[in-house]
Amino acid sequence: MRLGTEAALARVVNVFGAAKPHHAYLFANRRANRMKVLVHDGIGVWLAARRLNAGKFSWPLGGTSTQSLTRVQLDALVLGLPWQRLGEAGIIRTI
Fold first, then answer.
1. Which of 46, 77, 79, 88 fits a 20 to 30 Å CA distance from 28?
2. One Pfam match, by short name (predicted)?
């Protein structure tokens, strides 16, 4: 979590080959209570940090390096909410 903007951007380029415009790249600590978000807005990049005082961020299982999220899911993740239950995954089809 000591990464600055340049180091985070370098890690994104090393892992994904490039930082794509209008994409966000999230980094978390081992305890999952801190997160940094690197965003390429099409003009430049910016880095934001968030720390939860209680609880943990909910990360996908399986150790995959990429995960596509909708805007609503990303907003929920940043707030520390269970983002996996939003969108299609949260639809109730039977009673």
1. 88
2. TnpB_IS66
SS3 labels along 46-69: EEEEEECCCCCCCCCCCCCCCCCC
Tens digit of pLDDT for each residue in 44-73?
Answer: 999 999 888 888 887 766 556 677 778 887
Would residue 15 count as lying in a domain?
yes
| 78-82 contacts at long range (C-beta below 8 A, 24 or more positions apart) | 78/35, 78/37, 78/50, 80/52, 80/55, 80/56, 82/58
Cβ-contact 46, 4 below 8 angstroms:
no
Range of the structural domain that residue 18 is part of:
5-90
Percent of the chain with pLDDT over 70: 81
CA separation for the pair 77, 83 (Å, rounded): 5
| Whole-structure pTM value | 0.72
